[in-house]
Amino acid sequence: MPQQNSPVKEVSRYRRASGSITGMPLFYFHLRDGNKLIRDPEGVRLPDIASAHAEAVQSARELMSQSITGRARFGPERQFEITNEAGETVAIVPFREAAG
After folding, report:
1. Which residues contact residue 84 at a Cβ distance below 8 angstroms, ignoring those fewer than 6 apart?
2. pLDDT tens per residue, the chain (100 residues)?
3. Tens digits of per-residue pLDDT, 12-34?
4. 96 in a domain, yes or no?
5. For residue 31, what is the enclosing H or E element?
6. Residue 33 CA to chain centroid, in angstroms?
């Protein structure tokens, strides 16, 4: 389970502030860092996979920009693994995609 200041918590806090609408699919944004997987315990409701992909790109950009000013290192080698409510991987979004 992620710690309070984990990157997934930071992304989840942003998404909660953005709001979500019930009745839409629930997507989880797990963060892959080499062999380590930091699971998103909350997920976010979005209209479709394309919206989930766009959310992952935006979140990756924010995490990378935060790493410039902070101690955490989130470079282009990390990736989001997006899963649906059934736990099936529906998309993988490398941070390098957000950097380019």
Report:
1. 25, 26, 27, 28, 90
2. 344 444 554 555 444 444 445 689 999 999 998 889 999 999 999 999 999 999 999 999 888 887 776 666 665 679 999 999 999 999 999 998 887 7
3. 544 444 444 568 999 999 999 88
4. no
5. strand 26-33
6. 12
Query: Total domain count for the chain?
Result: 1
Cα–Cα distances (Å) from 10 to 16, 48, 59, 70, 88, in that order, read 10, 22, 9, 13, 23
Amino acid type, 33: D
Cα 97 to Cα 81: distance, rounded to the nearest angstrom: 13
**Residue whose C-alpha is closest to residue 16's, from 41, 48, 50, 37:** 41
The answer to whether position 33 is within a domain reads yes
The answer to whether position 20 is within a domain reads yes
97 within domain boundaries: no
Enclosing domain of residue 24: 7-88
